[in-house]
TrEMBL record:
Protein name as catalogued: Tyrosinase copper-binding domain-containing protein
Keyword Metal-binding among UniProt keywords: yes
Annotated keywords: Metal-binding
Pfam families attached to this UniProt entry: Tyrosinase
Organism per entry: Dreissena polymorpha
Tyrosinase copper-binding domain mapped to chain residues: 120-131
């Protein structure tokens, strides 16, 4: 595309900004302003009512695994060889492929399936961020590691479809190792640096947590079916109230979706699991005869 129009760009989804929240499921990203609702059939936002080969586009955010963590990025930046962060030789601690699977499973719906993930546009934003992490690692190889390493030739000992001399699918004339060439980032594209405190960019949707000195996504206005945020109260967004479903309903829809093989991914964090249980408890409470004025729920 950039050969035709060099102004074309693709934003990356830095999910560490959401992972730094008290409850990542409350991120502003899954709202009408950005990617649409995160529970059930996507009926709000720019991708509302999309139809895929598996039916309507669906999501089940926070349904499993976790988002990319700053700690993981810091860990892989302590390595110097691609084989230390890539399969089949990386250990789980430094496995970029495993970490990449986390947001796939966390978003749920079509995104969790290897054969269906690209049916949700968030796929491309997520993969742009994984490529961003890899490029930061490559820059470090040639500028920080001792001895210096040429990232364009540091191919891991992969075989089969990932063998370095195998022809790329859909790109005749290119081999897998050609994707490691510095040519791509020196000629065609570059990455904007990650946001940092105190400014965290100029957007009102990201703030600086001064206590931890990290940029954090803001919370969206939660709809009644979603349950309350940690220690907070329910807020209502008229555009979403009529279309959003509860986390429990989204889970049921997700389980009925046929996506084939699912991505390998890290286990869910206890923090995220508590958030899931809290929302389920909220749904159960509202189904009973609890005081409808009491909208407070605390996640311990």
């Amino acid at each position: 595309m950039r050969r035709i129009d060099r102004t074309v760009s693709l934003p990356y989804w830095d999910s560490t900004l959401d992972n730094e929240m008290g409850n990542p499921a409350n991120t502003i990203l899954f709202s009408t302003e950005f990617l649409g609702n995160g529970f059930g059939v996507v009926t709000t936002g720019p991708f509302a009512n999309w139809t895929t080969s598996e039916g309507q586009l669906r999501r089940n955010i926070n349904g499993g695994s976790r988002l990319v963590s700053r700690n993981f990025i810091n860990l892989i930046m302590t390595r110097c060889r691609t084989r230390q962060i890539a399969r089949p030789t990386a250990t789980a601690t430094y496995d970029l492929e495993l970490e990449h699977g986390g947001p796939h499973v966390w978003v749920g719906g079509q995104m969790r399936g290897i054969n269906t993930a690209a049916h949700d546009p968030i796929f491309f934003l997520h993969h742009a961020f994984i490529d961003n992490i890899w490029e930061r690692f490559r820059v470090r190889q040639s500028t920080v590691c001792s001895p210096r390493i040429n990232p364009s030739t540091d191919y891991p000992p992969a075989t089969g479809e990932h063998a370095q001399t195998r022809s790329m699918d859909g790109l005749p004339g290119y081999r897998n190792i050609d994707g490691y060439r510095n040519y791509w980032t020196t000629t065609w594209y570059r990455y904007e640096p990650a946001l940092s405190c105190p400014s965290c960019g100029t957007t009102p949707y990201i703030t600086c947590n001064t206590a931890r000195n990290v940029c954090v996504s803001t919370e969206r206005r939660l709809v009644a079916q979603e349950g309350a945020i940690a220690g907070g109260r329910l807020a209502f967004s008229p555009a979403e109230t009529a279309t959003s479903v509860s986390a429990a309903e989204a889970k049921a829809l997700d389980e009925r979706l046929t996506v084939g093989p699912v991505f390998d991914a890290p286990p869910a964090e206890p923090r995220t699991q508590r958030a899931q249980l809290a929302r389920i408890a909220e749904v159960a409470r509202r189904a009973g005869n609890a005081n409808p004025e009491d909208d407070t729920i605390v996640i311990g």
